[in-house]
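Continuing the series of single-chain predictions for the mutant panel. This is the parent chain; the variants come on the following pages.
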Amino acid sequence: MPIVLREQEQLIAAKLEVTYGVDPGLAGANAIMVQDITVNVLEGDVAQRNNYTGYLGNQGSVRLNTWCSVDFAFELSGSGDVDVPPYFAALYKAAGHSELITATTDVGYSLSDDDQDSNTIWYMKGEHKHAVRGLRGTLSLEAGTKQLTRLRFRGAGLYTAPVKVVGGLTGVDFSTLLKPLPWNKETVPVLTLHGVTLNAATFSFEQGQPPEYLALTGQEEVILPARNSTASIKIREDELSVADWYEISRAGTTGALAMQHGIDVTHAGRIFEFNAPNVDVQTVAGSFEQGISYLTLTCGIIPTAKGNDYSFTHR
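Parent structure:
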């Protein structure tokens, strides 16, 4: 009887590599509960053969290189302990972040442009395993009053021939994972831009760090050569005396952007903070919903020194 590869039987597991491009060996404990998976395991450049042969027809092609692309989302949740990294922390590191654990206080993630880690992920479709080595990529965050807060990872890695794993990835247990907090008035004590408290419907962040596959005669690697981080916030339009976002945008004024998801003490171990110290408002777009005026503020996150674009904190 032929096997059936079902959509709901997909799994992603991720683990930090000790040596770039070398699979460290994964287990069920490395599984991440994901959604919206798109994995293309056979990306690459193909050269068509275009010779004159005296007759018509396709002459075939030569594959020049092969790499993999991955794209998936996962719910933003904490570990339950203020100084224990979230279970998906390996993906922070694969997106160019370093980790700093402060005992009894928090776990912080800041950008590390010079010493970047990599992951191996196993993409499981039932019993079919696709290992993607040397994975690096970029993160985005999506939050809103009508959706669960989640992160998205888009990356690229080195190709490995797929294999069959009888029984699939064993030892996967998501039963202890904490549910994500809703994003609303009761759970977002801080959301400020240029010191102004916002009444927001949505908040999103794009790291803007697309991975590039590098293929040379002596090197095969996925690199993160550039970054252009942005944020977007949809707010209820307020009095101009509160904040004139039109003039702030026109003048190119910069200021801090801060968001805290989770209440101090009440949600200890589940609190997530985003901080960007230097942000401008690049565009201001108006719209109406439920008969009320909203503004969507698109912000540029501008570093003033190497790697100080923004930071994440779990506590």
